[in-house]
Write a structure and sequence with these properties.
mainly alpha; 8 helices; 80% helix; membrane
Length: 198
């Protein structure tokens, strides 16, 4: 891949990875409630999940959904339902210190990886990345570059959101502020469905 294309791809990956979206809202909430170390599996899951989604789109899943729109609609419905479930779970979370809210926990690697497959922002980014940066003359090499660049850029970019949450922990140590924060983050996560429903 030419250097100028690589730079453009890395910039695209950074902007799309660090901009607000469902996964980043969940990471900030998890960082605030559980700390960075307990949120790290969720960070890794997002990177693994998005990279696998990008690979799937590059291998032709986007064309499959265009051929059978019902599959795309079904995925949107499943994704919306799961996103609302996660928003509800976040809104009800009340754990910020070890030992409190023992049943509360951040998403696992597998849960956050699978979420990328129903995350509307992830699909939009993956489809755009493949459409713009995949070279028809060298599809395998360009897809490998796409996946590698996104994996390398996505991991630190989404970690920033978990860090934002951790930075808020002192402020959110008061139960009332934590409750308001979690309800607001749950509502914000639910609001990320708006682009998908238009």
């Amino acid at each position: 891949m030419p250097l100028e294309n690589l730079f453009a791809l890395a910039t695209f990956a950074l902007v799309t990875s660090i901009s607000p979206g469902p996964s980043n809202v969940m990471l900030m909430t998890s960082g605030a409630n559980f700390g960075f170390a307990r949120t790290l599996p969720q960070v890794l899951g997002i990177t693994v999940g998005f990279t696998s989604l990008l690979l799937g789109v590059g291998l032709g899943l986007g064309a499959l959904f265009q051929a059978w729109p019902a599959l795309s609609t079904g995925l949107k419905i499943i994704g919306a339902a799961y996103l609302l479930y996660l928003a509800w779970r976040i809104a009800l979370s009340r754990s910020i210190a070890p030992g409190k809210g023992a049943s509360a926990r951040p998403l696992s690697i597998m849960e956050s990886a699978l979420f990328q497959w129903v995350n509307p922002k992830a699909w939009i980014v993956a489809l755009a990345a493949v459409a713009v940066y995949m070279d028809a003359a060298a599809p395998w090499a360009s897809l490998a570059w796409l996946c590698a660049v996104f994996a390398l850029v996505n991991l630190p970019a989404v970690s920033v959101w978990a860090g934002f949450g951790v930075a808020l922990r002192g402020f959110l140590a008061h139960p009332g502020r934590l409750k308001v924060f979690n309800i607001a983050m749950g509502a914000l996560l639910a609001a990320t469905l708006w682009p998908m429903l238009r």
